[in-house]
Design brief:
The chain has a single domain, classed as 7 Propeller (Methylamine Dehydrogenase, Chain H), CATH 2.130.10. It is 0% helix and 54% strand. The chain is built from no helices and 29 strands. Strands 2-29-1-28-27 form a five-stranded mixed β-sheet, with no helix packed on it. A four-stranded antiparallel β-sheet has the order 3-4-5-6, with no helix packed on it. Strand 16 and strand 17 form a beta hairpin. The chain is globular.
Length: 365
């Protein structure tokens, strides 16, 4: 097994925050502290991934130490409803994603090299595990196709991505297609138009695009661009014209354009972030990019503007918080959820580490 680079040295007591964006404060490009905590709801243990349901009514959270997936409610004012349901995953989870139709949640577990599907009904109640399939080594990121017919998994220690089919009942097929990536793929995402899959490679210091056909067959990587040091998170713009990458060791985000054939441009724009950006997301309307930092100092969530050409604007808003590792926008763009934590000592963190800690959800107005 290859030696894996350790990412941080923090022992976490976790919480999840939901932050309401007050766009009336975004004036003249000035930075403003306009993201304010509104409420808190407790979860189980360490949480590293969070996802909103497509209708905006529910939030799914993984819990690595307790080996659970949980679903919480959220009302239209940004208020959090306590846990609706939870189910055991029987594995150390690392990434989850809600299906486009809102009826399933996919989750990967790095300790068991497994991808699983759970059902969710219209009231937010989880069903027991519907199906599972084996992956290659250390699956650390999962993404649905916009059609809901496939999922893609990035395998951190196997330098690969894999495609699985998902039928209308949530049954996973065996592996349809596998392709080799650069060294240590950390984040994978399907393009909103469904035509391409992008991945960032930590040690490879690169972003790659892959074609995929209607049957779930991947091409070899056909377009690659060099990033800054240790790219850790990737996100597509809603119109599928751009990609943004967070570079963990360089404290930066970068944008790249993507043409109709899926070819990546060289870097369009770069902005400096706080220490250790671990997650980056585009807002649903395409006007903003959020970044959270997984670092022992200088913790905050930052918002950057982005213009129609993919140029990043200077930071326009921030919120000081505890150490954060992931975020997700609500479908209507009014809220951001954060997996946040307080620091309590010194363990090393990597996709294969085991942590102690507790978790809660916060909402900000």
């Amino acid at each position: 097994m290859k030696q894996v680079k350790r990412l941080r040295f923090v022992n976490f007591k976790f919480m999840i925050l939901i932050i309401l964006l007050n766009f009336s404060f975004f004036k003249g490009g000035e930075t403003s502290e306009n993201l304010i905590i509104k409420s808190i709801v407790s979860t189980n243990h360490l949480s590293g991934s969070i996802s909103w349901s497509p209708n905006g009514n529910f939030i799914a959270v993984d819990n690595s130490n307790s080996d659970k997936i949980q679903v919480f409610g959220a009302d239209v004012s940004g208020g959090l409803i306590s846990e609706i349901s939870s189910e055991p995953t029987d594995m150390n989870t690392f990434s989850l994603a809600w299906s486009p139709r809102g009826d399933f949640v996919a989750i990967v577990g790095y300790s068991s090299n497994t991808v699983k599907i759970f059902g969710v009904d219209t009231t937010g109640n989880l069903t027991k595990e519907i199906s599972s399939q084996s992956t290659q080594e250390w699956p650390c990121s999962v993404s649905w196709s916009p059609s809901g017919n496939f999922i893609v998994v990035a395998n951190f220690n196997s330098n690969s991505i894999q495609i699985f089919g998902v039928d209308v009942s949530g049954i996973l097929s065996s592996v349809i297609s596998t392709q080799t990536t650069g060294d240590l793929p950390r984040s994978v995402e399907w393009s909103p138009n469904g035509n391409f899959i992008s991945v960032v490679n930590c040690f490879g210091e690169s972003v790659q695009n892959f074609n995929i056909d209607g049957n779930g067959i991947l091409s070899a990587s056909f377009s690659t661009q060099i990033t800054e040091c240790y790219p850790y998170s990737i996100c597509w713009s809603p119109n599928s014209d751009f990609i943004v990458v967070a570079n963990f060791n360089n404290n930066s985000i970068q944008t790249f354009s993507v043409d109709a054939t899926g070819t990546l441009s060289s870097v369009i724009s770069t902005q400096t972030t706080g220490m250790g950006p671990s997650s980056v997301k585009w807002s649903p309307n395409g006007d903003f990019i959020s970044v959270v930092k997984n670092a022992p100092v200088g913790n905050n969530v930052q918002l950057f503007g982005v213009d129609a050409l993919g140029n990043l604007l200077p930071e326009i808003s921030l919120h000081i918080t505890d150490t954060t590792s992931a975020e997700a926008w609500s479908p209507n763009g009014d809220f951001i959820t954060l997996v946040s934590s307080s620091i309590d000592g010194g363990c090393e963190v990597s996709p294969g580490a085991i942590y102690e800690g507790s978790c809660s959800i916060k909402i900000a107005l």
